[in-house]
Please model this.
Amino acid sequence: MAKLQPVLPVLLLILLPASTAAGHPGGGRMLVFILVGQSNMSGRGGATNVSWDGMVPPECAPSPRIRRLSPALCWEEAREPLHAGIDVGNVLGVGPGMPFAHAVLAADGKTGAAAVGLVPCAQGATPIANWSRGTELYERMVTRARAAMAGSNGGGELAAMLWYQGEADAMSREDAEHYRGRMVALVHDVRSDLGRPDLLVIQVGIATAQHHGKFLGLVRDAQRAVTLPNVKYVDAMGLPIGSDHTHLTTEAQVQLGNMLAMSYLETL
Ligand SMILES: *[C@@H]1O[C@H](CO)[C@@H](O)[C@H](O)[C@H]1NC(C)=O
Ligand SMILES: *[C@@H]1O[C@H](CO)[C@@H](O)[C@H](O)[C@H]1NC(C)=O
Ligand SMILES: *[C@@H]1O[C@H](CO)[C@@H](O)[C@H](O)[C@H]1NC(C)=O
Model:
């Protein structure tokens, strides 16, 4: 036994940085995605305004290969609700992040990725004006994205920003008319602040407006008119909506996660 003692500290030195700093236990390449928007990106699948049913389908189950950046900016194993501690003041449920990560990992032959790192940043009911450069939510997102990369010890690769927002901008004509300009500015600012002028952005086309807002069509037109390079669009129109008539169901979130993954994989 005495002979083994000197070995232990050396082993710890070798093992600790590999398992903690790399962001995921296996090491290797980790694709990092920033998740931004309002409630449907955060996730309300299975949730009412009072509680969440706790149902987690296999497509959303935790996996050692799916990490999330915690509110305290550390990598940890991801689990539903993915936005716990981030989307504050709301009852949270299932969102598109976990099924998206599973679908991306299923294509690891194509991506070569050992893990997926999710950086949840969404906040319910926020208009796009709440996300312009200098706002609290924008700065939190940039801080989290930078911490995600710094904490992945060279193994992280910032792969895309997933954006599902706009329902709150469909309530007033003025907001709807400003949407395209605000989104273009946001894409420029995020790319510039993260030092990635080519960063892939995948927008989700909104399906209905918040509070029966009348300007859904204008916001959808604005979303499709963001014709910058490397900005993609997937459409949520037609996905099943929950009994609250406001949010995507768990099943719909699984579908949306798969659609987002397909859109990402098409870019490779
Ligand atoms: C929750 O939603 C129900 C039905 O839509 C409504 O009657 C109730 O007032 C809401 N409760 C809260 C706490 O918002
Ligand atoms: C959104 O912007 C409004 C108006 O500036 C502000 O009152 C509100 O606190 C902001 N909300 C968030 C979540 O940043
Ligand atoms: C969530 O998404 C559904 C489907 O697109 C939409 O009907 C609803 O308005 C959205 N809810 C909010 C609060 O953004």
